[in-house]
Design a protein that fits this description.
The chain has about 150 residues and is an all-alpha fold. The protein is built from 7 helices and no strands. The chain has one domain. It is about 85% helix and about 0% strand.
Amino acid sequence: MLNYLILILLSMAPVSENRGAIIYGLATGISPLIFLPVAIIFNIIAIYPLFWFLRKARIINLVHRILGKRIANLITKNREKFEIYEELALLFFVAIPFPGTGAWTGSILAAVLKMKPRKAKLIIAIGVVIAGCVVFLSAYGVKAAIEGLISLLL
């Protein structure tokens, strides 16, 4: 039971998200039929309160304080160009499983760019599913390769 709670918390945490939860599930021997959907679903669930908080916190003011007016002006200046590709850019940003990308930073990016929340949530959810599948296939392949190498050596 504790393993499932850790899996859920990892999938909702800003640093690990579903990527860390999937690796944890694979490492602890939880069935992929359980840990993969749980990691993806709870990572998606985490973006709803995050969007609410970002709307209430007026995130653009925070961006002005942290990054300065220069970057905020750059975002505003290039908004028309970005609006053409914003959905695709957000999807790839969330879907590519690199450190610093994912549902949390994708939500912040959508808030800064003032994307429609309903559209942004859907795009982020699709990105989370793609990232989860990429991480699962990669991690499962590495695990299978290590197990195969160990069986050859023994």
